[in-house]
Amino acid sequence: MNRNMGKKRQYLVTGGAGFIGSNFVRHLYESGEDVNVRVLDKLTYSGNILNLKDFEGQDGFEFIKGDICDEAVVAGAMKGVNVVVNFAAEVAVDRSIDDPKSFLRTDIIGVYTLLQEARQQPGLERFIQISTDEVYGHILEGSFHETSELKPRNPYAASKLGGERLAYSFFETYGVPVVITRASNNYGPQAYPEKVIPLFITNLVDGGQVPVFGEGRQIRDWLYVEDHCRAIRMLVDKGVNGEVYNVGGSQECENIALTRQLLAIMGKDERSIRFVQDRPGHDMRYSLDSAKLQELGWKPRYDLEKGLQKTVEWYLQNEAWWRPLKQALDPRYSKGFWGEKGVK
Ligand SMILES: NC(=O)c1ccc[n+]([C@@H]2O[C@H](COP(=O)([O-])OP(=O)(O)OC[C@H]3O[C@@H](n4cnc5c(N)ncnc54)[C@H](O)[C@@H]3O)[C@@H](O)[C@H]2O)c1
Predict the structure, then answer these.
(1) What is the pTM of this model?
(2) Which of 107, 138, 173, 253 falls 20 to 30 Å from 285 in CA-CA distance?
(3) How many domains does the chain have?
(4) Contact predicate 77/101, CB 8 Å
């Protein structure tokens, strides 16, 4: 990859006020690299300006509140940029089942708007499109490779696939230096409390129960957010344009086992579990083969036990961060969207 010698790299981190994006900004600053970071974020329900408060006033840090679908905003945000990392997206599967259109808008049209502007940027070295393992659909045995069939099973996953394939087409057609990542389920500090792990931790802090879909037999491959950020940063330098890289935590776990691990860390027992009706089209298992990324020198540093311990500690120490968000949660997405009917 070409680097302008001696020049600070200008990053544009879209969706940088969200969970993974804000951890990525922290990772950039903590890695010691001399960078300028511009965040573009619409601050939707999951975007939180507090996630960026540590960087306010830091040399070369800028925040722009705006929409990646807005051409004028994107044109301004893209000026002088060397590296784009696009985290901005509508993300939650349950919300996509309820309102697919907003997902098509941000996860496809938003990506298109960024790519169109990226084409005009002479100094652009890399455009990382953050996709997801959900584009593969689910797998009952074995693991997905980057060449596996793509069969998204919910509107969120289908929209993400639209966005990443569009990004690929801009590489082939216009030479935009696109690299695509497909990561497994992330967890760690600053995840919006509607997500399963922070939802469970904060419910348990309050002495409440945790809603487990169906019988909790679905399997997810958990990736600690810091490991994900290291992978993305490595791909800025070592990724090959036009290529896709799986980023899996190699920590497969049934939801019920994950729940029990959390209960144990927090000193709770089975009485804290409430089984709720399963989600329609619920993917049964995700599993990624990340050998392609590992060949570049990356491997996860966190196993699930260590990562969960750190995550629980963070939520225990940062109640002032999550309490107001928790109070404002939409009950449809945090109490078992598909009804209160227990299956057990
Ligand atoms: N969380 C996971 O487990 C996971 C796994 C694999 C991939 N991903 C991908 O990683 C990315 C980040 O996910 P996250 O979990 O941090 O989500 P998040 O919801 O915490 O963050 C998304 C951010 O994007 C912003 N945003 C949404 N629409 C926007 C728009 N139109 N314009 C500008 N900003 C907008 C939001 O305000 C928010 O700050 C997404 O692209 C997601 O598909 C997430």
Answers:
(1) 0.95
(2) 107
(3) 1
(4) no
